[in-house]
Amino acid sequence: MSHNSFGHLFRVTTWGESHGPSIGCVIDGCPPRLALAERDIQPWLDRRRPGQSRFTTQRREADEVRILSGVFEGMTTGTPISLLIENTDQRSRDYGDIAAQFRPGHADYSYELKYGIRDWRGGGRSSARETAMRVAAGAVARVILGPSVRVRGALVQLGDDRVERGNWDWGEVERNPFFCPDVRAAARWEVKLDAARKAGSSVGAVIEVVAEGAPPGLGAPIYAKLDADLAAAMMGINAVKGVEIGEGFAAAALRGEDNADEMHMQDGLVRFGSNHAGGILGGISTGQPIVVRFAVKPTSSILTPRASVDRGGHDIEVVTKGRHDPCVGLRAVPVGEAMMACVLADHLLRHRAQNP
Amino acid sequence: MSHNSFGHLFRVTTWGESHGPSIGCVIDGCPPRLALAERDIQPWLDRRRPGQSRFTTQRREADEVRILSGVFEGMTTGTPISLLIENTDQRSRDYGDIAAQFRPGHADYSYELKYGIRDWRGGGRSSARETAMRVAAGAVARVILGPSVRVRGALVQLGDDRVERGNWDWGEVERNPFFCPDVRAAARWEVKLDAARKAGSSVGAVIEVVAEGAPPGLGAPIYAKLDADLAAAMMGINAVKGVEIGEGFAAAALRGEDNADEMHMQDGLVRFGSNHAGGILGGISTGQPIVVRFAVKPTSSILTPRASVDRGGHDIEVVTKGRHDPCVGLRAVPVGEAMMACVLADHLLRHRAQNP
Amino acid sequence: MSHNSFGHLFRVTTWGESHGPSIGCVIDGCPPRLALAERDIQPWLDRRRPGQSRFTTQRREADEVRILSGVFEGMTTGTPISLLIENTDQRSRDYGDIAAQFRPGHADYSYELKYGIRDWRGGGRSSARETAMRVAAGAVARVILGPSVRVRGALVQLGDDRVERGNWDWGEVERNPFFCPDVRAAARWEVKLDAARKAGSSVGAVIEVVAEGAPPGLGAPIYAKLDADLAAAMMGINAVKGVEIGEGFAAAALRGEDNADEMHMQDGLVRFGSNHAGGILGGISTGQPIVVRFAVKPTSSILTPRASVDRGGHDIEVVTKGRHDPCVGLRAVPVGEAMMACVLADHLLRHRAQNP
Amino acid sequence: MSHNSFGHLFRVTTWGESHGPSIGCVIDGCPPRLALAERDIQPWLDRRRPGQSRFTTQRREADEVRILSGVFEGMTTGTPISLLIENTDQRSRDYGDIAAQFRPGHADYSYELKYGIRDWRGGGRSSARETAMRVAAGAVARVILGPSVRVRGALVQLGDDRVERGNWDWGEVERNPFFCPDVRAAARWEVKLDAARKAGSSVGAVIEVVAEGAPPGLGAPIYAKLDADLAAAMMGINAVKGVEIGEGFAAAALRGEDNADEMHMQDGLVRFGSNHAGGILGGISTGQPIVVRFAVKPTSSILTPRASVDRGGHDIEVVTKGRHDPCVGLRAVPVGEAMMACVLADHLLRHRAQNP
Predict the structure, then answer these.
(1) CB B162: neighbour CB atoms within 10 A?
(2) For residue C19, with 0-12 CB atoms within 10 Å meaning exposed, 13-18 middle and 19 or more buried, which class applies?
(3) Does the beta-carbon distance from A69 to D15 stay under 8 Å?
(4) Is pLDDT of A322 > 80?
(5) Per-residue pLDDT for C95 more than 70?
(6) Quick one: pLDDT at residue D216?
(7) Beta strands A150-158; A205-212: pairing state
(8) How far is A10 from chain C (nearest CA, A)?
(9) Average pLDDT over every residue of D209-225
């Protein structure tokens, strides 16, 4: 049991604070003899990196990852892989006024209640900066899964504005700063997000992550169901408030005959007529695309003043002046993909242990 | 690591199949010197027991629990508590025709893919019968949490019909067969569910579980966040397709200033002006009520014929004739409560280990 | 994490007290489609069963095992296997006088210190009765390992009297009540143990367990080394005070050049010239026989009066009158074998997860 | 589950290879608000550091530890503590000839069998260099245990030469390069070890570690017994072949009446007349000193040529020319202490979770 580890056989332990000297993770259980170098990890980190458009925090981090162990002559050895990123742009002065304040919607108050102490610089351990290591671990998970498994994410809702499913274009996701698969929605969102940013406000979002090509049989009932592990993985991302699989909450409003995915034989293979299940039945993958969505609340760090209290028990008003994202949901896309990849890699190893 | 265990310090391992001789669980880590007897567990099982109204399966099970270990002279001893329930009404003949069939929406196909074998009698291990042991374990978790923590659940949506929040009455939940807190919705649902049942169809549902009085500080960032563990716990219940905390998916459509729960001092204590967060910030409980909702898909076992395939690779049509619930969501209410209680008990132990 | 479970992928959770209604275990992670029935387990339990000679406790237990789940039509299904044995001869009256006494060398005092309560009937949870479930689990582990892996144990020292290595005959182990591989030592031990029994005394023993045919590569450095896991497995058996691998403590007195096992090629295969290492290098099996020895202290339950204290804080004298083994080491032989089998099965699954 | 982690609530994950850029560990679960700085860790590392006498490897490492996370303004925060040590004196050229050779008694061959690849530079992951991080983690464990718990180790046997118990002086341990508590034995050992070194040979050793002041109640039966966890902890140290608690293997030769530690009341407290049990009964600490001994085999890296094979399947002769310790047992003393501290800290947290 470890508070800061996830996965079991592909096991990732992360460490580090927003404004400490560095952040890192240790990946244990990676199979040996896989080609792995920093260049396999860096592109995924670059996708998540802040400061790439006016819609993400202006903190400038190179986010350059180094492999400190577990790789020899370009190949994994089966021993733990230690990854490290230096923090280079941690301006603690931006945060000085929050040392004694509890920002509404932040973890300040709950960390204080739990530990009686907190590293208040930039949110400390509760900062989304930690998600960089999830993305790095996800890159290693992708190497384990191999090229036949494709994990992709997209923003499908910004505030109350959803993409049109009919306009979906995965290529478009890489062409706009919103990871938006619908070119028209992207145009609307630019206006919307600019307005929120200028108003010192923020908006929420919904992200969808899809894994294609994942082998059937992943997931171990009853308490290591694939959907349950995905739910924990996504809900554990900063600011996430909801997770759904396949049809999700909409399934509640369907009839049994409409929700069941019918099967038939085609060229000797089983085919499904639909995918309400999101690729998972009884907690086990069926071979259909695995579809997960999660909701991200609007950034809690806003310029609009909010009522709060301080450590001394006084009523105060809080305005968060630091560098922040008007929609943290944007950068949650690569993080959600990484968590999906990690969960699948872990279950791949678990599955073959029991079912060789 | 265990596929069939949940929790870490309050750890429950369940076993058993729908039509085996019995089902059971082992609870490890329960603190010693707590008064515990079968009578503390049985009422919660009775609440979940099938066959109590025409809206649940007509399978007749006494669901009488026996404590086989871990309790001495009416007190827990700190050693593992073994609970066992005999299966008394397992009519395998009802299911004979499904031995070679894959029922759409069921775990038949995925178990077959994973294990190459499955106990097809009544769904075997994937049957909701297993949830009886979750309810039993939840009863023990409630003893650990003590009377100051109150965990209650209710059905808040049946099909596409939601309760009115203004009509909420916890007392009503115990008075209708739907666990519905809104007397008027309950009346509508009776008609709706009768219609679905007679049509050989089924409907989905949304359940809300609320824990009041839970101490602050529960939940261990980063990968044992209280909300992430709750998400896994609920998503792991049979037929669940979505989980949300507090405002949930609706938070995506809110502005930062509307979603933040403001704080102020009142009589020397910190008070929140709202509870969009659902009682959890940064993965840690704040002392506010902890609010979780989850969506249950419509029962997959329906009389309406659906296209499918069999083990031999032939196209077939499946009609499920066994005894089933037209809305499995109903009996998910006590199960959801139990999972909440188990997660809280586990985190209570975890918290005091690190923060004495 | 679980106090009452061992193994990770082949995971066994035991429950039950000496004088409760039954004892049992849940085996999680067993691969599917293995032929398994009670008749595969019962013979191993019979080997350990008390009351078979005048040298073991006269408690009469049938130790009849029942499989309650996880097996369908004679094959494992991959779901948890629940095993149960009824306690039939629990005479609590024999133990009535120890309810308030702390027997020297027993767990009475330490359980009281830890839990503030204990089931004193026959030692409760700390009774060696629990080891019956280890033997049952070991039988399932043997099925996983298959016929090419042979795990056998023998008593190599009774009190201060050791077997002659030159007389070793595995067949002899099954022919005397001491699991002794040396027919001459067995004759001496009969006299010795009769004397101890009649004197109301007891003696210790050393057991050796050897696994032949185990595949190389088992064991996961750094903290799941095969030898470390074997050490925990054996030290966790009741009354064990020491564990050693291969040359063991004698290795301390050797020179480097004498202790190193030289290797050479023979018919294209690597051969070792000796096995001081006991089949394990760097925590990983090499393919040589895996050799473990463990020391069992003399039974603490003796007729000779010993000074002690009671719960009320009074000096007392304790004489243990119950039915006991004059040498608990005898029945530790099948238990040690079972633990070896369980550790190897667990590591076999772990190994193939990472190294497919 | 993690191959490279130990402990459960006080959980340490180590990473790094002998000749990589650095080694490190992540400590998860440390309680908050403990004063901690590098200066609390460095002295323990200095005790273990190589190159301090002619009896340890001449590799020169500063072993300067840095805290990268988990500490804020001199206090632990409850978040993961990341520790890092740069490798500064890794001369890979010394080892070039062993890339394709399997050194007898080393992990070369077994790593190759398991992973099909190994970092052969200085033993890679299997090098005793990893134990530096155990010592660092042990220093943090000591902070958790507090000043009332005293964990000390000593070398009690070098080759076949044991200390006289009557000469025991803990102060002497710090005054000679052998951690020897017997001044006369130390004088003999100097001669003995010089001779072995000059002969290109090596000798084994036995280490004893004693914890005084540990609270009673630590250890969780049945499968997290304190002695079982200590056995795994010690057996997992490089080159260890045997572990014993209290009387250990000698207990096998005792009679029940001689081995039982009698108890009596003294000034209202329970006192033991002896400590054959080594402070542990039924897997739980009693409050007596906890006594563990472990045997270390003679260093496998010797100048005396030994027969072996290479990766290509040829018979070869191996002479290890690198910088090595003539007795690896010497530096195992601080490592054994650290493992004892880590096990106790973990069980302290576990105990108070269940028994508040």
Answers:
(1) 15
(2) buried
(3) yes
(4) no
(5) no
(6) 97
(7) antiparallel
(8) 9
(9) 97
Q: Is the pLDDT of residue D244 over 60?
A: yes
Q: Round the average pLDDT of chain D to a whole number and report it.
A: 94
Q: Residue B283 pLDDT more than 80?
A: yes
* Dihedral sign computed on CA atoms, order C185, C188, C194, C199: negative
The residue of chain A nearest to residue C347, with distances taken between CA atoms, is A353
Nearest Cα of chain A lies from the Cα of B101 at a distance, in angstroms, of 11
Average of per-residue pLDDT across A333-356: 97
- Cβ pair B282, A105 in contact under 8 A: no
How confident is residue D308, by pLDDT bands cut at 50, 70 and 90?
Answer: very high
Q: Which residues contact D180 (CB under 8 A, 6 or more apart)?
A: D154, D155, D158, D163, D172, D173, D186, D189
| Residue D31 with chain B: CB contacts under 8 Å | 354-356
Nearest to C354 among A1, A9, A354 (CB): A9
Q: Which letter, b or e, does each residue of C186-222 get, where b requires 16 or more Cβ atoms within 10 Å of its Cβ?
A: beebbebbeebbeebbbbbbbbbbbbeebbbbbbbbb
pLDDT, position D94 = 58
Positive or negative, the Cα torsion across C97, C101, C104, C108?
A: positive
* pLDDT tier for residue B324 given thresholds of 50, 70 and 90: confident
Q: What is the pLDDT of residue B93?
A: 60
Q: Give the pLDDT band of residue A62 (cuts 50, 70, 90).
A: confident
Hey, are the CB atoms on C217 and D280 less than 8 Å from each other? no
CA distances C83 to C133, D43, D115, Å, are 8, 52, 36
Show which of residues 253-272 on chain A sit within 8 Å of chain B, judged by CB atoms: 253-265, 268, 270
Q: Is B42 in the C-facing interface, judged by CB distances under 8 Å?
A: no
Instruction: Give the type of residue at B135.
Output: V
SS3 D4: coil
The candidate with the shortest Cα–Cα distance to A159, out of D65, B258, B172, D76, is B258
pLDDT at C109 over 60: yes
For residue B293, how many C-alpha atoms fall within 13 Å in the half-sphere facing its CB? 23
For chain A, say whether D233 makes contact (Cβ under 8 Å).
Answer: no
How would residue B92 be classed by pLDDT, with cut points 50, 70 and 90?
Answer: low
Q: Does D17 contact chain A (CB < 8 Å)? A: yes
Q: Which residues does chain D have within 8 Å of residue A23's beta carbon, measured at their own beta carbons?
A: 69
Burial annotation A258-288 (CB, 10 A radius, 16+ → b, else e):
ebbbbbebeeeebebeebbbbbbbbbbbbbb
| A73 Cβ contact list (under 8 Å, min separation 6) | none
Closest in A1, A349, A355 to C354, CB measured: A349
What per-residue confidence (pLDDT) applies to B97?
73
Partners of A113 on chain D (C-beta within 8 Å) are: none
Closest-CA distance, B286 to chain D, in angstroms, reads: 17
User: Of chain D residues 285-304, which have a CB less than 8 A from chain C?
Assistant: 285-287, 295-302, 304
pLDDT at D51 over 90: no
Q: How many CB pairs under 8 A join C and D?
A: 375
Q: Confidence band (pLDDT; 50, 70, 90) for B322?
A: low
CA distances from C102 to C19, C32, C252, C328 (A): 18, 46, 38, 20
User: Distance from A73 to chain B by nearest Cα, in Å?
Assistant: 32
Residues from chain D that touch A21, judged by Cβ atoms under 8 A, are 68
Q: Most B CBs within 10 Å: which of C5, C33, C82, as the mutation test of the B interface?
A: C82
Q: CA of C1: which chain A residue's CA is closest?
A: A1
- Which of A98-107, C34-43, D138-147, D153-162 has the weakest average pLDDT? A98-107
Q: Which helix (H) or strand (E) holds D291?
A: strand D290-296
Q: Which of D8, D255, D284 sits opposite C110 (nearest CB)?
A: D284
Q: What is the average pLDDT value for chain B, to the nearest integer?
A: 94
